[in-house]
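Researcher: Structure prediction, please.
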Amino acid sequence: MMPKCLFAICLVWGLGLSLPAQTAHESLRKGDRQYDKENYADAEKEYRKALQRDITNPNSNFNLGNTLYQQGKYPDAALVYEHALPMLKDPLAEADGQYNLGNAYLKQAKYDKAVDAYENSLRLRPGDPEAKTNLQLAKKKLQQQKQEQNRQQQKQQEQKEQQEQQEQQEQNQQQGQEQDAQQQKQEQGQEQNQAQQTPKPEEKPNNGKMSRQEAQRLLETAVGREDQKNARKYRELQQQEKPKSTKKDW
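Model: Predicted structure follows.
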């Protein structure tokens, strides 16, 4: 995809030509010769020298854009072409400028701008086969680009929805855990309150009186001791009542 060239037209040297103009023209011609030899870096230097001496020269601007394009500096080339287009008064030269601008946009995958540039070129030169071919290519690339952008947007939307669903599920799960913990805490609190509110068996004051159980235990203890005492006395009495044995002296 070669850019179309617009080389300087040889000027008739005269005594009235100023020195800066002579120097600018000389640099422009040197740039053209280097461009023909495909020494694009050297051609760029010469064209820039020409522009330093005469920035309004359309040929220097246009051909500088071509050298940048040939070196793969497509964004810089597009800027130079855009700057040079208003300077091109000839419709055919402007058609070439629009065509080259479309090529620079096409290389940058700026297909919408490339389509506009090619259409502008064809309005100035309707029968240009290269511009027609590149226009169709740019339209095809633009359609593919839009389809890919739509797919990317749809994919991003799906990923966003999945992420939102996952975040919602995690949030619901966390809320459920918090509710369970809160409910468990409430149940524990209710159990503690019930335990505190349950009355303990009251101990009735005896008011100086024995309960039946205490009286029974005391009675059993007292009777047992009294029985022991009476049994001891009974044995002593029996021993006193025994007849004394008489001892005979024979």
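Model: Residues 12 and 22 are 11 Å apart (CA to CA).
Researcher: Thanks, that helps.
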